Amino acid sequence: MTGESVVDAIEHCFEIGWSDGLPVVPPYRTLVDRMLEALQWDGEEVLTSIPGQDTEVTAEQVAAMAVMAGCRPEYGRVLRPLTEAVFDVRMNLAGVEVTTGGVAVLVVVSGPVVTELGFDYGGNSVGGANSRPNATIGRFAQMLRYFCGSQGGAMRANGTMGHPGRLSFLIPERPDSHFPPFHTQSGLPAEASAVSVCSAEGPNSVNNHYSFEAEGILDTVADCLAHAGSTSYYWHHGLYLVVLGPDHAETVSQRFSRDQVREYLYENARRPTDELARLGRIVENPRAESKVVRGTLRSPVDNPGLLYVVEAGAPGGRFSAVVPGWVGSHEFISRRVADA
Amino acid sequence: MNSRYIVEDTMDRTADDRYADLVSPMPRARSGRYRINFRPQLREVVLVDNDKPNSINIIRATQTELRRRGIAVREEIIKRPIGRDPIDTQPELWGPLSRERALVLDGVND
Questions:
Q1: Angle CA A124–A223–A275, to nearest 5
Q2: What pLDDT does residue B11 have?
Q3: What is the tens place of the pLDDT at every residue in A15-39?
């Protein structure tokens, strides 16, 4: 195999639609078989069928995507539970890909696997780390979304805005987090490694350099959560991920546990319902499930359980971020990663 | 055949022998599970609201416009019990719709 023939194969993949818009590693049979071995799946095995699209996805196709995304076989212990989580019926993969919301699959990796596989959990790690496991595993998750949610490219994606995370969107939790491991919010044991997924809009940066009080940090985060354009105000059942940078997390954790952070944000991230109605963020005759009460302050979420917290990113700058979930994403779906 | 109606199947090009060693990542729809009838037995339109932003307004406007054009439209607008879920996972809706003899229109969004 010559360099030129590999480039030809890359071009061929572009030509027949086997691409997310970037060059892919051509899914040669030898590479796919090696990936299948790492994933411990038989190639013919049907891993899922996408409801509403009558589409079946085989292990061989998933392994081909992992190769194309640039993943190494040793990432298999993360790729397998990640695939199972993305194919969980609660992800509503077909909806994720065809919604006007323009969302991506957000992957959070937590526990010992973060250091074992060499994820970059420092600078720019809220989806932007130039590190192979972050970038390629995040890309693999988007390929699952793109190829499987659109019936192999047959259905049109209808996202209005979209965001760069649709190419790759992975956040590793800091191993030295001030809070319990992220996956304990989904009921997994603290000592485990885990991969968790939801569908999400892009991250909004939250800066506060001058407050060294927990309330100052959290009120700033709350303002970002509750901006007038926040998608979930009416539907009320989409989740949010609050990413506390380590400097902010240090300040906040001196006064609040993680559950207290969720409660505080639920109580304080609000806008007047009447103002939201005046702006057109709430329909004239709201449906009962949205629990619209005029004359009150309204949270964009129905309950604090829809607010997830993770510590990620680098120290040295006092930044955090808010990642709004898609309104159809009601919980993080977590799967345990096998021990090394 | 009019060339405007020839749709190229990109998968045909994967048959190129030079690339026979590549494994397709593309899931494909199974065929045959659903029987689709493009010719309704009843000259009437049935509208389904899927509970998306502004969908009910669009559906009502559609009802008005179709009637203005002399097309029979059933008065009742069917509502999906759970708007976010596919119809075929909601038997209480899927059953009657699959037996519907009129033309069913569903799935509008803003």
A1: 140
A2: 44
A3: 999 999 999 999 999 999 999 999 9
Residue closest to B53 by CA, chosen among A182, A281, A291, A193: A281
Chain B residue nearest residue A158, CA to CA: B109
CA atoms of A183 and A332, how far apart (whole Å):
9
DSSP string covering A159-191, please? Answer: -SS--GGGT--EEEPPTT-SSS-GGGGGT--TT
- In chain B, DSSP finds a helix count (H) and a strand count (E) of 2, 4
Q: Rounded CA gap, A177 and A108, in Å?
A: 14
* CB A200, CB A161: distance < 8 Å: no
Once rounded to an integer, what is the mean pLDDT over residues A243-271?
98
- Residue A80 or residue B17, greater confidence: A80
Flag whether the pTM goes above 0.90.
no
Q: How far apart, in whole angstroms, are the C-alpha atoms of residue A96 and residue A329? A: 9
- The DSSP call for residue B76 is P
Instruction: Choose the mutation target among A12, A13, A16 for the interface with B, i.e. most B CBs under 10 Å.
Output: A16
Rg of chain A over all Cα atoms, to the nearest angstrom: 20
Q: How far is B67 from chain A (nearest CA, A)?
A: 25
Cα torsion A149, A200, A314, A254 to 10°: value is: -140
Instruction: Quote the CA–CA distance of A77 and A113 in Å, as a whole number.
Output: 9
Report the distance separating Cα A129 and Cα A176, nearest Å: 18
- Give this complex's ipTM: 0.91
Give the amino acid at B36. Answer: I
Cβ neighbour number for residue A324 with a 10 Å cutoff: 26
**A95 in B contact zone (CB under 8 Å):** yes
For residue A335, the cross-strand partners are A195
Task: Indicate the angle between helix axes A132-143 and A59-69, nearest 10 degrees.
Answer: 140
Cβ separation of A151 and B28 shorter than 8 Å?
A: yes
d(CA A47, CA A58): 5
Nearest to A328 among B11, B84, B89 (CB): B84
Whole-number Å distance between alpha carbons of A181 and B7: 51
The yes-or-no verdict on residue B1 having pLDDT over 60 is: no
pLDDT confidence bin for A130, thresholds 50/70/90: very high
